[in-house]
Specification:
By secondary structure, this protein is an alpha/beta fold. The protein contains four helices and seven strands, in the order αβαβαββαβββ. The protein has a seven-stranded mixed beta sheet, with helices on one face.
């Protein structure tokens, strides 16, 4: 009787732990906004999907209102904006950085790879250059979050 009770308690604790807190599986869904004419954005979406993300794609002719709604200053603009959880993902940010952002949940509004850095996901055909991803806070200030291609 005591063994059966201990197994039930252990099983109940395991189920509770698996469904709450840090053990909960990371939500890997996002919405990506891009212009209809940008092909490198499609490359980034392919990269994200290949890393296990479910990406809903929305095409718009002007992305500035999306960036503004999510607190991304124009100086950090890329060619597309995605939203994952409570964060905007601006430009060609690698999937590993997005996963880290959602895992760590820093006080920020966005993660950005400004411009279109050569060698970033979706921009591989442009060559390879060092670049950083920037964590953007509510005041629009940025700090380096990740370094890529030898940056």
């Amino acid at each position: 009787m005591m063994g059966r009770l201990n197994r039930r308690l252990l099983l109940g604790a395991a189920v509770a732990l698996a469904s709450t807190g840090p053990a909960m599986a990371q939500d890997r869904r996002m919405t990506a906004y891009k212009t209809p004419w940008c092909g490198c954005c499609d490359g980034w979406v392919t990269h994200m999907r290949g890393a296990g993300w479910t990406v809903e794609l929305v095409e718009l002719e002007d992305l500035a209102p999306i960036r503004a709604r999510h607190g991304v200053p124009d100086r950090y603009a890329g060619c597309h904006t995605a939203v994952a959880g409570a964060y905007a993902i601006e430009g060609h940010v690698p999937a590993a950085d997005v996963a880290r952002l959602l895992r760590e949940q820093p006080q920020a509004v966005a993660l950005a790879a400004p411009g279109m850095p050569a060698g970033s996901p979706g921009m591989e055909a442009a060559g390879r250059e060092p670049y950083v991803t920037l964590l953007i806070d509510r005041r629009g200030q940025a700090t380096v979050f990740g370094r890529h291609n030898g940056a």
